[in-house]
Prior knowledge:
Bidirectionally degrades single-stranded DNA into large acid-insoluble oligonucleotides, which are then degraded further into small acid-soluble oligonucleotides. Pfam families: Exonuc_VII_S. Keywords: Cytoplasm, Exonuclease, Hydrolase, Nuclease. Belongs to the XseB family. By secondary structure, the chain is an alpha+beta fold. It has one domain. The chain contains three helices and two strands. It has helices at residues 3-10, 14-30, 35-62, and strands at residues 64-68, 74-79. Helix 1 runs parallel beside helix 3 and helix 2 runs antiparallel to helix 3. It is elongated and about 65 Å long.
Amino acid sequence: MNDDAQSADQALNFEEALKALEAIVHKLESGEAPLDESIALYERGNALRELCQKRLEAAKAKIEAISLGAGGTPVGTEPFDQD
């Protein structure tokens, strides 16, 4: 994948990147693309998958659990713990 395409992909939000990835998967599964194009699509799809994964990890890191006091009012937050 060239630098221009990589830069353009980095500008995509999560939903746009996921939609582009879904389109690539559909095209690869359909067998419409010749071999060289399929390889390029696979490489871009893999880059988009990595981008989506990083965006999800960043979002998960921002999630905070809200602690409630005796009266049910929020008293503080703590980092998200997935375990």
